[in-house]
Amino acid sequence: MRGVVMHAPGDVRVEDRPDPRIEHPGDAIIKVSAACVCGSDLWPYRGVEKLDGATPMGHEYVGIVQEVGSEVTTLKPGQFVVGSFWASDNTCEICRAGYQSGCVHRVLMGTVGTQAQYARIPLADGTLVATPEVPPADLIPGYLAASDVLGTGWFAAVAAEAGPGKTVAVVGDGAVGLLAVLAARQLGAERIIAMSRHEPRQQLAREFGATDIVTERGDEGIARIKDLTGGLGAHSVVEAVGTQESMMQAINSARHGGHVGFVGVTHDVSLPGLELFGALVHLHGGPAPVRRFLPELMQLIGDRTIDPGRVFDLDLPLDRAAEGYQAMDERRAIKTLLRP
Amino acid sequence: MRGVVMHAPGDVRVEDRPDPRIEHPGDAIIKVSAACVCGSDLWPYRGVEKLDGATPMGHEYVGIVQEVGSEVTTLKPGQFVVGSFWASDNTCEICRAGYQSGCVHRVLMGTVGTQAQYARIPLADGTLVATPEVPPADLIPGYLAASDVLGTGWFAAVAAEAGPGKTVAVVGDGAVGLLAVLAARQLGAERIIAMSRHEPRQQLAREFGATDIVTERGDEGIARIKDLTGGLGAHSVVEAVGTQESMMQAINSARHGGHVGFVGVTHDVSLPGLELFGALVHLHGGPAPVRRFLPELMQLIGDRTIDPGRVFDLDLPLDRAAEGYQAMDERRAIKTLLRP
């Protein structure tokens, strides 16, 4: 089969890779309907994260079940399924508490590489959620978004306790930040402040439910949030970038007693203890337990209540994956969808 | 009047200071029944925190109202009152959300110096809570504990979401850590693991409700907590020290999705972003909003349900304050009560 392999920073190729096969009786093989390039794929692309040799890429996916292992009981060939970037058993104590990304048996899908024609999904019963029927083509991008960016933005908004009566600030205008705006809206937030200086992204943020746009960053951004909230700061802040500046901007944009949900992968970030102590906020984040939210999100997508697939502004055949990486790296695209 | 003044690290004196007087119409003057030395008073005593010249000390207090300003409406002379280390109006939006230590009009009582015969309490209506009657002498230490260490330990346990069915680990065996054990017990925790290597403190922890004692620290301490929790980590962890090691011990002792409540003042602490991201915990802490809990805690003390005053294992007249500081610095005393 064809699949994306990163050989070095900036060097992404689509190559022949071995067809995946059932390795454990809990596995399923899916034919990938659509995959995409994640903001986190840009870390190794930019050389920030070290590559351990040539690496198959991709951890977001939707597809059709082709084959299931002997222990798989809830899935059958022909079903359309969505999974998340952590495979999880969905039965352990951590999963049952809603933290499937911390499952005691979790498997990182990045080790599988879903930017390909086929993919092996470990722990298939726990990981994959099927739709009642194979959905129409125009819903594929939405379901694909649920696999990571929507689920992650949603988790960030939940971690920030976005809800009725709340003012929510969102730091980061990538796909996750934009979908955190959508999530905050769905969760009933009263006011949603998107922090963005990119006009097309501001526009999408507004369409997703942002009531205010703040273009300032860092201390100026914090001051603007304070201005907009009677000097107090936001009740809820989503951090969807992962830099030192964005984390401190998020923490200091929240009011005392407020909630910060962070989902940007925090490379080279170091939180100063006294500043965190003085902020008196709630901080929660990490790899999103997308599986927790999949049934609800898939329902909202299926009945067309939300349209998270709009974050895909570049749609390419798999063989042109390198262009998709480049466009995201140069911020010409918010998110690239790849069709095998 | 007589009052404690710190002149330099290790140099604590009891001196004549001016009698406090009403400065703002919302002030009250109290005759201090008892004050005490806080673990945080040891930071400047040890030279870790810089002193800005000779400094009146003390921010914990109970006493009898002597005089009230013209705008004070809820208090009258003769009442026995407890306050916290942050004076707060208890009416602003932050106070109403339960974060009085982040009150928009807050005043740090450390600037007043309550290790003295009298003290001026700003924002008296918001800050002070009166008992129905002047309590018997044996309850004074308990009420004094409510002023900071009990309220802080309680907040830490609440921030860590201690409650029924939960396993709670407490890092730190000072007065705050020990009272977090008591709080976790009152909040209904199923299992409470106190981390302490000091026999008398282990004993008090057990009396306050600890079910297990762990003497290991750092990575070994984390491994012990994992052993005791089926490899998962505790649901709730209280951090009541404030060092790099204790913070990381707390964060890594919690399970994925678990809650860490931190109240140790985090000097020289720096939280590595990727480790925090990977931990996937809730982190909440800072200066405790003790005022939120005072009515409930004073009730529990008044009806003798809890006896937090047991953390005071050294009881000295105010004039011997220097001995009290020294004993705590050398860890010969858990906490020193001072009687003016």
From TrEMBL, chains A, B:
Cofactor: Zn(2+)
Keywords: Metal-binding, Oxidoreductase, Zinc
Molecular function via GO: oxidoreductase activity; zinc ion binding
Annotated ranges, domain Enoyl reductase (ER): 7-338
One Pfam family here: ADH_N
Domain of life where this protein originates: Bacteria
UniProt xrefs under SMART domains: PKS_ER
Entries under Gene3D superfamilies matching the protein: Medium-chain alcohol dehydrogenases, catalytic domain, NAD(P)-binding Rossmann-like Domain
UniProt-listed PROSITE patterns: ADH_ZINC
Family note: Belongs to the zinc-containing alcohol dehydrogenase family.
Protein name as catalogued: Alcohol dehydrogenase zinc-binding domain-containing protein
